[in-house]
Amino acid sequence: MPTKSNTLDPAKTSGKTQAATQAQKAEPATTKPRVFSGIQPTNNPHIGNYLGAMRHWAAEQDQYASIFCIVNLHAITLPQDPAELRQNTLSLAAMLLAVGIDPQRAPLFIQSHVSAHAELAWLLNCVSSLGWLNKMHQFKTKAGDDRESATAGLYDYPVLMAADIILYDADLVPVGDDQRQHIELTRNIVERFNERFGETFVLPNPLIRAEGARIMALDDPTRKMSKSEPNGAIFLTDPPSVIKKKIARATTDSERTIEFNPNRPAILNLASIYSLLAQQDHARVEEHFAGKGYKEFKAELTDLLVATLEPIQARYNELMGDAAQLDGLLRAGADRVRPQAEATLARAQTAMGIR
Ligand code: TYM
After folding, report:
1. Whose CA is closest to 341, among 34, 7, 41, 102?
2. Could you say which of 82, 169, 184, 210 is the most buried, measured as most Cβ atoms within 10 Å of its Cβ?
3. Among 175, 190, 227, 229, residue to substitute to test ligand 1 (most atoms within 8 Å of Cβ)
4. CA nearest neighbour of 166 among 200, 139, 208
5. Is residue 236 in contact with ligand 1, taking CB distance under 6 Å?
6. Does residue 339 carry a pLDDT above 50?
7. From atom 16 of ligand 1, which residue's Cα is the shortest distance away?
8. How high is the pLDDT of residue 195?
9. Is the pTM here over 0.70, yes or no?
């Protein structure tokens, strides 16, 4: 049985194998833990994506050797309009830069620009059991009741995700809680491959925060905030009037107090968003709102969201004004990471006897 571990301490997670260490690395050698993460160019990102993932990516660029990817091959596992997909890809790149990702420090690229992702996914398919894939919650949710009509790509989505992570010898994968199972699968694939073909891949660990990893929908605190449910999500591009309306309509409960109580999921979710954006701990937030009602709380939460998003949106609009520059930057990102991806792919091919 593969060992399971959720170690979050980077000092304990440098699981580089001998083969991986000896492999030719295109990027300069680094002693920092390697981070890889990705995001789909479907719709605009929302504050769940921001609080669960994107802001950490930006904040920790110096702490880790990071690589970030816009995963358009994952996006096409569900039907996409080609022109919209192209536009969403550019606009997501602009948003990632606007929240502070610095492509000099952390290469940013488009998944389909590095063909090793799809190639390694095929090799990994050949060591992944159907039994593993049958357990994936995301497939069950996305395929819905009509599973027979779901694409093979949607079913295989997690294996492509494993390829993304493995190609860059990632030690840590910063994601929201909904991706936990996919990273467990990645670990299973790495362990099985290494067992069968000798130490080839690095065993990655998820980096999932205690708070903000599962922001819930504003209109239904039992479901996670999702790009496909606009009423329950605040998108990073939402103007102040829309933010105000969405927060005003956000589900509350019949009590009046602001507290971090798991039995009051709607208020817990809103209070958590406040606490994370204001960078104030729970006690301070509860104290601040003691004796105040939902009206004042919602007004302050709206102001905080607007103040957080305003500078991000200003920078985003500026970047969106120069599509050619964005495109050039993404292509340069792919050129920078491709040699490392190809070196890992070559290692896997050699190990399997097909090179
Ligand atoms: P995606 O595009 O759905 O989401 C991007 C990131 O945002 C996190 N997230 C959330 N965090 C908190 N609350 C929420 N409501 C919420 N919704 C989304 C996600 O967990 C994710 O970290 N399969 C991935 C993309 C991917 C990937 C990878 C990630 C492809 N290859 C390799 C890491 C490594 C996805 O669909 O993310």
Report:
1. 34
2. 169
3. 175
4. 200
5. no
6. yes
7. 48
8. 98
9. yes
**220: helix, strand or coil:** strand
Closest by CA to 7, choosing from 245, 181, 173, is: 173
Closest CA to 181 of 153, 166, 159, 209: 159
Amino acid at 7: T
Q: Does any ligand 1 atom lie closer than 6 A to the CB of residue 46? A: no
168 in Cβ contact with 340 (< 8 Å):
yes
Nearest to 18 by CA among 347, 349, 306: 347
For residue 222, give both structure tokens: 């039992």
Residue with CA closest to ligand 1 atom 35: 39
Q: Which residues pair with 66 in a beta bridge?
A: 35
Instruction: For the chain, give every domain's residue range.
Output: 10-213+322-352, 238-319
Pick from 26, 43, 206: nearest CA to 116: 26
What residues form DSSP beta bridges with 34? 65
Q: 238-319: which CATH number, 1.10.760.10, 1.10.240.10, 3.40.50.10170, 2.60.40.10?
A: 1.10.240.10
Distances in whole angstroms, Cα of residue 318 to Cα of each of 57, 97, 312, 323:
21, 11, 10, 10
Mean pLDDT over the full length of the chain: 92
List the end-to-end C-alpha distance of the chain, in Å, as a whole number. 29
Quick one: tokens of 104? Answer: 């000099």
Q: Is 263 helix (H, G, I), strand (E, B) or coil?
A: coil
What digits encode the pLDDT tens for the residues 189-232? 999 999 999 999 999 999 999 999 999 999 999 999 999 899 99
Average pLDDT over residues 80-109: 98
39 CA → ligand 1 middle, Å:
6
Which CATH architecture fits 10-213+322-352?
3-Layer(aba) Sandwich (3.40)
